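Hypothesis: this fold can be encoded by more than one sequence.
Test: take the structure tokens below, design a sequence, compare later.
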């Protein structure tokens, strides 16, 4: 188990793993549409911070995908396969993130 985790961390790198974890946490913190906003305390994190971070994380996933494709262009076949997996994971997470947050942003746009 530990060797598999170390292999995954080496394959993806610590910054990509951190980005993936931040995206997962951001998806988990999404408030339900219609939730009242709190402007102080820890309730502010899912109500204000998570919605602000979701477009930023979405763009970071797409940027990382572009950079992985650029790095992939002049590498050997083994490394190209690793970067293709990275691109697929990033694109999949970006789609899931977008699908998860669209109802919240749609509710905000119709409310104001």
């Amino acid at each position: 188990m530990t060797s598999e985790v170390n292999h995954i961390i080496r394959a993806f790198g610590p910054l990509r793993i951190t980005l993936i974890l931040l995206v997962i946490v951001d998806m988990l913190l999404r408030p339900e549409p219609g939730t009242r906003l709190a402007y102080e305390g820890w309730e502010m994190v899912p109500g204000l911070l998570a919605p602000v971070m979701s477009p930023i994380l979405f763009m970071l996933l797409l940027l990382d995908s572009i950079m992985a494709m650029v790095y992939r262009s002049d590498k050997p076949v083994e490394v190209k396969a690793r970067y293709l997996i990275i691109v697929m994971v990033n694109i999949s997470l970006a789609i899931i993130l977008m699908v998860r947050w669209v109802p919240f942003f749609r509710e905000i746009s119709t409310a104001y």
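Residues 2-111 form one domain. Residues 10 and 17 are 10 Å apart (CA to CA).
Hypothesis status: open.
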